[in-house]
Batch of 4 targets.
Target 1
Amino acid sequence: MEAIFHERQEGSLCAQHCLNNLLQGEYFSPVELSSIAQQLDEEERMRMAEGGVSSEEYRTFLQQPSGNMDDSGFFSIQVISNALKVWGLELILFNSPEYQRLGIDPINERSFICNYKEHWFTVRKLGKQWFNLNSLLTGPELISDTYLALFLAQLQQEGYSIFVVKGDLPDCEADQLLQMIRVQQMQRPKLIGEETLQSRDQRVQKTDLEQALDVNHAFDGTGMLDEDEENFQKALALSRQEIDMEDEEADLRRAIQLSMQGGQRSGFSDSCMQNTPRLSATTNQSESLTSEELRRRRQAYFGKQQQMHQQLQNPELHDVPTTSSNALGTDPGGDMSEEDMLQAAMNMSLETVRNSLNAEEKK
């Protein structure tokens, strides 16, 4: 339907749009229609002056505003009728007795001009199809032949005045093209106000979508705040520290278990020493070496546990180097049994975890 000329509503210039859509081109401007309206006003003034310029009717007429146009761009039916006379066209009221006596089927006409209050629009046949060229629509609306009579009857019921345009309309490209082809309209045009509202709703939805995407981007890892990242690093370091402590505790338990097993094997070796002296000596030397290694390992572990415990209680001393021998003073495994050492290690581990949790809560 691109070949069909269709002016859309601007201000209150519906009379101009109605005429140009009827003639299928920019034939009239507001200035030209204003000139026709002023000419009609002058003719009416001259007729009123025939009764006397000093009469009360004449003075009242001069004080009244023009009935053919106003500042908003409205033009009367007289202006439209005079404008069409330039092209040899005339208007006949559709529901007048004179026209109804002719018994003409609306489908056999060429065009109609419809008016309700101060709005004008054209219904015209182009080629072999009818179109509603209302300037309040976003585009031409196709009207089937069977629907045309019903459409005009509906307009009359709504209060419209309908005029039949008589005469030969000027040739136009759309009429010539649609004589050869027929068009199909898959979607009817909307009112301009509905299109504007729909466009605004789409813009609002787009804005909401962009905001949602921005919020999502802020939490996708790349837009993380510095404070959140710092807290994340602290939690990660604490988790690693707890894992290391759990690994050391597991190692200590395995070392104590090996030590206990070594003690049992030592008793068994003493009972058999008389029969296998050389084997017993070798076993005692191996167990003595293993116990020494276990003792050093336990001493290092308790030293590290004591150092971490002091750091949690005194954060100011975090950077002060402390050796395990200075922290302990004496060998914790010297006078303690294996079970006492295991219980002490577990108690210190639990105390360390509690202190860590308390420190994090204070932060």
Note: The chain has twelve helices and six strands.
Target 2
Amino acid sequence: MATIRFGFGRLNFLLLKRRSFLLLKLIAVVFAVLLFCEFLIYYLVIFQCNWPKVKTSAYHSEQETHETVLKAMFLADTHLLGEIRGHWLDKLRREWQMERAFQTALWLLQPEVVFILGDIFDEGKWSSSQAWADDVARFQKMFRHPPHVQLKVVAGNHDIGFHYQMDTYRIKRFDKVFNPEMLFSWKGINFVMVNSVALEGDGCNICSEAEAELVKISHKLNCSREVNGLISDQKQRASHCKNGQLRPASAPVLLQHFPLYRRSDANCSGEDAAPPEERSVPFKERYDVLSREASQKLLWWLQPRLVLSGHTHSACEVLHGPGVPELSVPSFSWRNRHNPSFIMGSMTPTKHALAKCYLPLEDTVLITYCGAAGFLVVIILVDLGLLASPFLLGCKLLRKFKTV
């Protein structure tokens, strides 16, 4: 009887040991897959991105070029979900993706300034005070950044509402959190950040104030160009330009949420452009793009050298007027597209170079998880004896092949 008990005890011990080893294998596979899909994949993908080089004149030394180049990151349409339309699983998945992508990009690429081109939130246009505070707290956690990196934001229609929803309360609430500057200058480069929702052109109070501020900015930029282009005695006669107003004498970079007017995305191409069936659909003025009139005013007042916008969630490159390029920045979130990206800009007071940095594909992560799940099922079935070990099966086939 004692021998039988000892045999059963040994059998239970071996069975427990086997099950423990199986559990360790399963835990190791799950941990490795989670580590890859939730952390390492972002480093592997973003590590391949490089800052574009600005073409400089032959007489500029490398030292001068290095000192004047500003590294700027541009992203758009993060659409942090709110309490109404945001399912908890959707929030968790997509916001983790954006947080890991942003933090990895900061660590690997070391930008000096980051611009987000509107629609930071998905429900800012109708969220309550408490919901707004919760969304802001999540944004500040996801897009945290070191003190030496500046984060600049422009308003989008989902942040303050379309023109018919926009009011002073929503704008002040947004401004209180992000303190947006309409004219931001750094390293001799001017950035004009426009609330494009307010460019309706119907004479409303908010629209009139926005246009008046743009006229002032236009005056400041023109003064800087004039004064820097005049000799000393002529500068004294330029009394309408006060020294306090002077900015760097460089054509500005225009940043806004709505794109400037274009008929459609028919001339857009690339893997992150709108789907082919949507490209020829006409855009609606003041909804999909700015009106013709507002677009012409911005180009006339500001005379920008480059325009960057968001809103469409897809990429597009177009030329306006006398060859002013505009780049529509795709959405940064998996919720809006399976291949999100952001723009890297190397900028000097007179030149710029842009490059696109893609984030990991959502399909790649899902396929990896599915493959891992299948692998775990195989491990369990082999351990239970319900499936022959692929290794042993391969060895048997190899022996048969050799005997033949």
Note: The mean pLDDT is 86.
Target 3
Amino acid sequence: MKFHILPIVTFLMVVMATNAALPPEFYWKSMLPTTPMPKAITDLLHPGWREEKDASVGVGNGSVNVGVEKGNQGQGGGTDVNVGGGNGGVNVHTGPKGKPVHVGVGPHSPFDYNYAASDNQLRDHPNVALFFLEKDLHHGTKFNLHFTHTLNVDATFLPRKIADSIPFSSNKVSDILNKFSITPGSDEAQTVKNTVSECEERGIKGEEKRCVTSLESMVDFATSKLGNSVDAFSTEVRKESEFQEEYRIAGSGVKKLGGEKGVVCHKESYPYAVFYCHKSDSTKVYSVPLEGADGSRVKAVAVCHTNTSPWNPKHLAFKVLKVQPGAVPVCHFLPRDHVVFVPK
């Protein structure tokens, strides 16, 4: 969902000038002095605060349009899952001749493991995030990928002092819409409602979750769960493409990052940067080097959930992969504007 940026920018400029808040990156450097900021974070700093002046951007709630093929067969079966921003959706492609279908997920993100995907949500559409099995993480596995631009690229971080002054609750939606000049009943208004509602839902058993509305709050949540000795990673794409391309896991191989726990933060569709962060003790994180047929390279991050038994048994991942809750580890690539923290 793309928000009309002019009234939002005007409002934020007035608030920021009034509060004279410090740039969020100062807090990161004070709390995590030996942890480099991943690109997913630097891309979301206010332009005036960025140390890296580059043109690349992250991907909203959507991220990677992907399919999996076995080994070097090229014609092997696969599963393609897309996660869109706003009302969202998942593109599911099974087999080399299967027709892509859109699985509408309503207000829920596929990274919310409480939700159930219903059978009547299937309809044609392309776009974004792959569920796959951990056993596919090996050299030579092929993926058909399409990395797209975020729909709310202008949704940068606010300093915590400012973010905390803005309402963020379902009983304050009218105030939120008024502050950002969003028309009630519009698609943008529904996106705001969906995001706030998802943030207020209870997590699954064993999950500790929080929606953070500032970079400072993200750092606090991650360090409260993992300590201050952490690394942070995000998927990095070095070449933009308008079309799906074939990648395979390169010879340098898959590398495990951290231990068996991590904090993953998923970017939400919202007028400014808001992340749905959750911590689980049954999480593995991998760095996955991908090489395109044209020589392009992607430093992808994959997150694998080793205990899916608490998930909704009708969750999209089980429908797509045709597995039962708790049977096998379920993985997904981390979208470009999402971030994961793991212990050093």
Note: The chain has a mean pLDDT of 76.
Target 4
Amino acid sequence: MRRYIRAFLACMLFAVFSALYVYSKLFYSDLSVGGRGLGEKTFLHRAAASKRSDIGQETRRGPDETDPGDQHWYILRKAEGRVRTAAAMHLAVVACGQRLQETLTMLKSAVMLSIKPLCLHIFAEDQLHASFIEALESWPGSFRSRFNYTLYPITFPRENAGEWKKLFKPCASQRLFLPLILKEVDSLVYVDSDILFLQPVDALWSLLAHFNATQLAAMAPEHEEPRIAWYSRFARHPYYGRTGINSGVMLMNMTRIRATYFKNDMTSVGLRWEELLMPLLQKYKLNMTWGDQDLLNIIFHHNPECLLEVPCHWNYRPDHCIYGSNCGSAEEEGIFILHGNRGVYHDLKQPAFRAVYDAIRQYSFREDPVSSLLVPLEEELLKTTRSYCGKSHVLFTKRLAHSLANVNRDAQRPHGW
């Protein structure tokens, strides 16, 4: 009798452990990365893949089959459990095509200068994911401990996905859907891949505390002077303020965005964010030049009380110096965030912008940032003074010098854990 009981219990235990094994295989595919013996894992989430007929086949649905609210696939990298999400700043970027190195340089500038820890949300084409993981995992542990990151696929609404993806530039309109994708994130800094932080992200993040009861986003103007601004001269649709806004740097309270009913010129009632985007695109797409940025201008034209307009030193572009210096706040305080639009990091048209980009890209985390980054950059900028932007070279390093001095001072300080 005892023999039968033992056999029965053995069978039951085998069944339980088999079930647990199958359950774990159905929900997670364990992909170790880093190779440093630290127990660090990357998890490929399968929980929402119920429509797939073959669970064992690791395929992903294309953009035409996805929806911003359906995070069915994402890669999550945990930084040894040291980043407390509640205390961290959230930074998002979108990378498509040849933007890998540019995006990594932006992320380097953000992590290098940050004070509080960062949660990075990287939206990228699938073929770029492995390269992002390899690069970020190669950063020294003292910098890796400052951030967590999540890699997401490019995700658009199922209907009209192709239209959204090719609007203006590939994947650029992804930023419009961040409030619908990152539903658990309260506030977020979004930046284009061609952004460089010359001041800690913390400075921009602190502006959230300056939002009044109706403001839910902060952006800088597209231009300072209406007589030479693009929107005031050429736009064939409504735009914000006198010169429009530039969406390369956006600070968002996404909880407020999700809860707000936006005034518009299509209905007499307010529409939620997710109800507003497609109708606006259908109405104005033949009149738009700058894609998703134009849509944001239309939205905030009708809802100006929702926007905090920040000075141009938060989004300094070639337009601010190419015909002579026209950003007064940068003249006074220096450049906080550099925006190398028009591809100026990769050609010789604006050597001052390229000099800053190359200096940060080439900087090794293990070197002294003042002697290895700032000093060579200042020397390189002196070679650019024949260009209009080069004549303002002091503005390019004024805030960076202060920021790097703080990096040196705080090099041994734990970062917010």
Note: The longest helix spans residues 2-27.
